[in-house]
Write a structure and sequence with these properties.
GO terms for molecular function: structural constituent of ribosome. Helix content is about 30%, strand content about 10%. A three-stranded parallel sheet has the order 1-2-4. A two-stranded parallel sheet has the order 3-5. The protein has a domain at about 90-285. It is an alpha/beta fold. The relative contact order is 0.09. It starts with a helix and ends in a 9-residue tail after the last strand.
C-alpha cells in the first residue's frame, strides 16, 4: 500500500516537472464558468447600452478637460500660486534645434548664402507660429550643437549661450530680435496684407520686461552696442575654448553682418512701403507718418 502511494507521488512529481510554470499567460477559466452578459429589456436589465442612467455620460456629452462640475477650477481656487500668476500673458517661443537647422540647410530648404530670419523659417513649411497663442517667435536650442557646421547669418527671438557659441565657432553671426504682434501677423502671412494694400508698419520696440534681454550684448541683442558684442564674442570663445574666426577678413563679411533696422520687418523693404502684387510694383511714400 505504501509502495503504491510512493509510486503515485513520484509519477505526479515527474509530471509536474514536465509541465510549464503557472503564469498569467497560461491561466484559463474553468469550462462554462463565464457567461456572456446579455442585455435585457426589463427594469435595470441593461437597456442603457452600458452608458449609465441619465447624465452627460449617457448622452456622450463629455466634460472638457479640467472642468470640475460647477466648482471653481484648481487654478482659480489658488490664485496666489506664483506659477499661475500672469500665465496667460507669458510670451512663448517654440523651439527649433540646431540639428533641425542643419538638416534644412543640407537639404536646401534654407539657402545658407542669404540671411535667415523669421520669414525664412516659416517659408520652409515645417514651422508655424500662432500670435493669438502668445507665440512671439522661435528659440534656437542646442540639440545637435556638436554636429552644426554651417556658416550662417541668423536672427531668432531667443538663444542660449551654447547655441551662440556653436554658430560663432563656425564663423557665423547670430542676433536675437523682438517682433510685436502686428509685425508677426504680417511676417506670417505677408501676401494677405499686401493684397489689402496695407503699408508695411514699423516694428515696435520690446516691452519693458524684455528690454534688458534685447539690449544685452551677451544675448547678441539687436539693440546692443556693436562694440560690446565684439568683446563678448571673444569672451565666449575663450570660455568654450575655440578660436574665434575673424569675420572682418571673411570675403562674405557683408552677408554675415547684414542686419535689419530696429524698426524694419523685412530685409530690403522699408516701413511705409506699399507692395502691390496686382501691379507688381512697390510704392514708396515720401513722408511716412511718425510714431504717435
Amino acid at each position: 500500500m505504501m509502495a503504491s502511494l510512493k509510486e503515485s507521488a513520484d509519477r505526479a512529481l515527474k509530471m509536474l516537472h514536465g509541465l510549464p510554470r503557472v503564469q498569467l499567460g497560461n491561466l484559463r477559466p474553468n469550462p462554462n464558468s463565464k457567461k456572456n452578459p446579455q442585455r435585457g429589456r426589463a427594469q435595470h436589465g441593461g437597456d442603457k447600452h452600458g452608458a449609465g442612467n441619465k447624465g452627460s455620460g449617457q448622452r456622450q456629452n463629455y466634460m472638457r478637460l479640467g472642468y470640475e462640475t460647477g466648482n471653481n477650477p484648481f487654478y482659480i481656487r489658488f490664485p496666489y500660486e506664483p506659477y499661475y500668476k500672469g500665465h496667460h500673458m507669458r510670451r512663448q517661443y517654440p523651439p527649433i534645434s540646431l540639428l533641425q537647422l542643419q538638416v534644412m540647410l543640407d537639404t536646401n530648404r534654407i539657402d545658407p548664402t542669404e540671411p535667415i530670419d523669421l520669414t525664412t523659417l516659416i517659408n520652409t513649411g515645417l514651422f508655424k507660429l500662432s500670435p493669438t497663442s502668445r507665440e512671439f517667435g522661435f528659440q534656437l536650442t542646442d540639440q545637435g550643437a556638436d554636429k552644426f557646421k554651417s556658416k550662417i547669418c541668423i536672427e531668432v527671438q531667443h538663444a542660449k549661450e551654447s547655441v551662440i557659441a556653436a554658430i560663432e565657432r563656425n564663423g557665423g553671426v547670430i542676433r536675437t530680435a523682438f517682433y510685436d504682434l502686428k509685425s508677426l501677423q504680417m511676417l506670417i502671412n505677408p501676401k494677405k496684407a499686401f493684397e489689402r494694400g496695407e503699408p508695411i508698419p514699423r516694428r515696435m520696440l520690446p516691452p519693458q520686461d524684455a528690454i534688458a534681454y534685447y539690449t544685452g550684448a551677451e544675448n547678441r541683442g539687436y539693440l546692443a552696442n556693436p562694440e560690446e558684442i565684439s568683446k563678448h564674442r571673444l569672451v565666449l570663445a575663450q570660455k568654450y575654448g575655440y578660436k574665434l574666426p575673424k569675420i572682418e577678413e571673411d570675403p562674405e563679411y557683408e552677408r554675415l553682418t547684414a542686419m535689419k533696422d530696429a524698426r524694419q520687418i523685412f530685409f530690403g523693404l522699408e516701413p511705409g512701403w506699399v507692395i502691390s502684387l496686382k501691379d507688381k510694383c512697390i510704392i514708396k511714400p515720401k513722408n511716412f507718418p511718425s510714431d504717435s
